[in-house]
Specification:
heterodimer; A: mainly alpha; MetI-like fold; 14 helices; flat; B: Dipeptide-binding Protein, domain 3; 19 helices; 18% strand; globular
Chain lengths: 339, 598
């Protein structure tokens, strides 16, 4: 398996180099410095900004320098701000500079990554777990009751759930579950917005966005998983299991579920990069300082170094998740050989 | 979905209870809860800050030599770090401002100082802070403020830039001819020529005074580690989320102003006169990228005030009377309308072959387009009727603004008959023979929708527009390169003087400068140079009016509109007079906890 992983990683290198090349070219179609400085910027300010980012160098030089930053993980560096006493009784700061943001003066890409990732996964990981668990259970029940009333009810609910816009859930959730509940019943279960780190605060700040995310995703996932289960339920091994006298419960939760894992894993793995990237809408509306907002804000504020680095890092994560998907296939299905 | 709710029910309750249990006990500490309608500031370093959010945040930690009088309207200046307003004298072609710093003003305690104890602010700090504008390390982000004003400063910048390019360090000890130190508390600023607007610049937050020790200690981290002389110190700042500041224990203590407007008495804004500020111990500022959560938090009583979002205007106010609705009044909430120093317009490139030029035919064409636009419709559709429509470039509230917004020459329509007449005189009866006009706008906000309305209105006189929606940087690029014949833009005044807006039509400021219209008028330019050297007198206001009429005759733009911002203030928040012209007002705020909703 390790040989396979290594080979896939090697195959991915030219793909990644191409992605980085394309990314850098795209971000330079419009002059990033002019975009950041806005109207009325002086020529001196323009040139100084260009020099500070090395944008005055040839593209090839910039390309290899950017690759160096990626390979040496320079992007995760954060300023070391240890204040120590100096000889004159004042203070001195030992500082190692990472890749600095343009719009967030004094912050580096490393700091942005480090501070944004926990808020993002506080929402996305529980949402994924809830969605996965609930959707698979509903899908199994639906397949079990296929064509009967419970199946129809569950599928109608799923279609309804996915037909309503994410924004509607957010706005209604904030108004009904957070604001009105607080106003009318004086029960402050959910915060209208905000985020505080720590397990004790998680439910207050994160549960509502997690529930909204779960409800929206459940519609899609339930329908998909049900289709997988229904397909599996018609396979020969199910008939054999029945003939051998296996209980319905055992057939569903042992035989069928195991064989349905490949499409389930494919779907879950394809969402992994997005766990890190966070949910832009939820983070915006609930004022959660996550990765989705960090990327979006960097784009809107023309923060070129942050946008360039975050997109390159996300692209890398995406490639790794594709490799991991293939590895997981082999783990759950002995028919797949990593050779 | 139902099943999921059933499954989650008990878990939900179990999970939510801990989060509800612990509202922090605040005791008698006075804590302000304020919103900031943005993702927050980008920098707290005055020299690299540029946005109003940078301004608002930095103004809590830093101080300028002068400040705006909090309650006085129209705006006036008063000394802040200075003991009195600068003594202005004219010396030949130069202008001298003699300044005396207040004694006993200390920087906040910080590890960057020996023993961690803040030292007294002196003349050298002022000069050091301003010399940072010329330091290449800060990429000249604020250089435009001091450019071509102080004698010898431009030369100092060029010398220092050359030094840095040679690999040497910026020399902050090198002299600037126009910055003359008399002693630690007295100095003189020599301007190249009389520039009366310079006093307004002294109140701009970028010119705040910072200590050299802090800049050298924290380097780029100084942008997130403020050390000033202001009334507050930073406790924490979580980017994009919130910021908490505390009352500075070493703040010298200023007095709440006694000078106020008659209408302030009704709101009790005069009652704290003479008391020592700041009144509060702690300020918690929450950043809101979106308005809906801010509005709900205000209605929950978690914010002391809010701007009223456009989509909640009708929830808060009666449509016709614009009076606050009963349910808000019953809670003791008061509203406040604040006109902004806005100039919202659609500009012509006066060098464009089709739309530009100064012949009668070209003027008639632009005048026809101006008469065809219905600004009231824009106001109703996009601004819930709260904008002020006016002639000229000088917004309401400033000297030079025409009475009731109507100038002697006015093209504010719609007057389609007259527009069609002028269009025919220009050689395009019913728009025949007129090529399709490219209209450049940015994709932000509802600007594309506004462009569609503009297109429809122009269609009524037979003019066809091709709306080109670009990103903001692309729009700037097109305008700076004089490629856009017609474009949508807006300008917010840097300081409350019409001169700042008239500069938008000053010939030498042509694109890529602030004169995006590329408007050229020798007489206008001559008068502009004249007003720069004049104090604020009725004579100068007359010249402002004359200059505006020149522009109205030539029609380099279609306009104008200024927004009005509506605020709602909870009853427990005292001493708040909303303004967006300056931002150091947080220090005047107080709380009356007896009026807080339980």
């Amino acid at each position: 398996m390790w040989t396979y992983i290594l080979r896939r990683l090697l195959y991915s290198i030219p793909v990644y180099l191409g992605i980085v090349l394309l990314l850098m070219a795209c971000l330079r179609v419009n002059d990033p410095v002019a975009g950041f400085l806005g109207k009325g910027a002086s020529e001196e300010a323009y040139q100084a900004k260009k020099e500070s980012m090395g944008l005055d160098r040839p593209f090839v030089v910039q390309y290899f320098d950017f690759l160096r930053q990626l390979v040496t993980f320079e992007f995760i560096k954060v300023p070391d701000e240890e204040v120590t006493a100096s000889e004159d009784g004042g203070a001195a700061v030992l500082r190692s500079r990472g890749i600095e943001s343009w719009s967030q003066e004094g912050r580096t890409v490393g700091q942005i990554l480090r501070e944004s990732i926990i808020p993002s996964i506080s929402i996305t990981v529980p949402a994924l777990c809830f969605t996965l668990l609930i959707s698979i259970v509903i899908a199994l029940l639906s397949a079990y009751y296929r064509g009967r009333l419970p199946d129809k009810l569950m599928m109608v609910s799923a279609v309804l759930g996915m037909s309503i816009s994410f924004l509607v859930y957010i706005i209604f959730g904030q108004y009904w579950a957070a604001y009105l509940l607080n106003q009318k019943l004086e029960l402050e279960f959910f915060a209208v917005q905000g985020y505080e780190p720590g397990a004790a605060n998680w439910a207050h700040y994160c549960l509502l966005p997690v529930l909204i995310s779960t409800i929206v995703a459940m519609g899609y996932d339930t329908r998909f998983y049900r289709a997988v289960m229904v397909e599996e339920s018609g396979r020969d091994y199910i008939i054999t299991a029945r003939a051998k006298g296996s209980t319905k419960r055992k057939i569903m939760f042992v035989h069928m579920l195991k064989n349905a894992m490949i499409p389930i894993i494919t779907r879950v793995m394809s969402t992994l990069p997005f766990l890190v990237m966070g949910s832009i809408l939820l983070e915006m509306y609930f004022n959660i300082p996550g990765m989705g907002r960090a990327l979006l804000d960097s784009i809107f504020s023309n923060d070129f170094p942050v946008t360039q680095m975050l997109v390159a890092v996300f692209a890398g994560i995406f490639l790794v998740s594709v490799i991991l998907t293939d590895v997981f296939y082999a783990l759950v299905d002995p028919r797949v050989r990593l050779s | 979905m139902k099943l999921s709710t059933l499954l989650l029910g008990p878990a939900l309750l179990a999970l939510t209870l801990p989060g509800t249990a612990a509202p922090s006990a605040q005791g008698k500490e006075k804590v302000l809860n304020l919103p900031m309608r943005s993702a927050g500031p980008g920098s707290l370093d005055p020299v690299t800050g540029s946005t109003v959010y940078d301004n608002r945040a930095a103004s809590m930690f830093y101080e300028t030599l002068v400040q705006y009088k909090y309650l006085k309207r129209p705006l006036e200046l008063e000394p802040l770090l200075l003991a009195e307003m600068p003594e202005v004298t004219l010396d030949g072609e130069e202008m001298r401002l003699k300044c005396t710093l207040k004694k006993g003003v200390r920087f906040q305690d910080d590890p960057c100082f020996p023993g961690g104890k803040g030292r007294e602010l002196v003349t050298d700090d002022v000069f050091y802070s301003w010399k940072r504008f010329a330091d290449k390390e800060y990429e000249y982000e604020s250089w435009w403020i001091l450019k071509d004003t102080i004698k010898g400063f431009d030369e100092y910048k060029d010398e220092q830039t050359a030094r840095v390019d040679e690999g040497k360090e910026h020399d902050y000890d090198a002299p600037v001819e126009g910055l003359v130190k008399i002693d630690d508390h007295n100095f003189e600023i020599i301007l190249k020529r009389p520039i009366y607007a310079f006093q307004w610049k002294l109140a701009q937050f970028q010119l705040s005074v910072v200590p050299r020790e802090a800049v050298e200690t924290y380097g780029t981290g100084f942008a997130r580690h403020p050390v000033g002389t202001g009334p507050f110190i930073l406790e924490q700042w979580t980017d994009k989320k919130d910021m908490t500041v505390l009352r500075s224990p070493s703040f010298r203590g200023e007095r709440y102003p006694s000078e106020h407007m008659p209408e302030d008495e009704e709101l009790g804004l005069h009652l704290a006169a003479g008391k020592t500020i700041p009144f509060v111990d702690r300020i918690e500022i929450t950043f809101f990228v979106l308005e809906n959560p801010m509005w709900l938090e205000f209605k929950s009583g978690k914010l002391d005030y809010t701007q009223v979002p456009a989509e909640n205007q009708l929830e808060a106010f009666h449509k016709r009377s614009r009076k606050l609705k009963k349910e808000f009044k019953e809670k003791g909430i008061v509203s406040h309308a604040t006109p902004l120093l806005d100039f919202i317009f659609r500009g012509f490139n006066m060098e464009d072959e089709l739309l530009g030029g100064y012949t009668d035919e070209k003027r008639w064409l632009r005048q026809a387009m101006h008469l065809a636009i219905d600004l009231e419709e824009f106001n109703d559709v996009f601004y819930t009727g709260t904008n002020i429509i006016y002639d000229g470039v000088i917004p309401p509230g400033l000297a030079g603004y025409p009475e009731d917004g109507k100038a002697e020459i006015s093209w504010i329509g719609p007057d389609l008959e007259r527009a069609k007449e002028l269009l025919a005189k220009a050689g395009y009866p019913n728009g025949e023979g007129l090529p399709v006009i490219d209209y450049y706008v940015s994709a932000s906000g509802n600007i594309p929708e506004q462009a569609e309305l503009f297109k429809r209105q122009m269609g009524k006189i037979g003019i066809e527009l091709n709306v080109r929606i670009l990103t903001f940087p692309q729009l700037i690029d097109a305008v700076n390169k004089k490629k856009a014949p017609l474009f949508g833009f807006a300008w917010s005044s840097d300081y409350p003087d019409g001169e700042n807006n008239l500069a938008l039509l000053y010939g030498p400021n042509e694109a890529p400068g602030a004169n995006h219209f590329n408007y050229k008028n020798d007489r206008f330019d001559e008068l502009y140079r004249k007003i720069q050297t004049m104090p604020d007198t009725p004579k100068r206001t007359e010249i402002y009016e004359e200059m505006q009429l020149m522009a109205l005759r030539d029609v380099p733009y279609i306009g104008s509109m200024a927004r009005t911002r509506f605020y709602l203030i909870n009853p427990w928040l005292k001493n708040f007079k909303p303004t967006e012209d300056f931002y150091n007002w947080v220090k005047y705020m107080d709380l009356d906890e007896t009026k807080r909703t339980p």
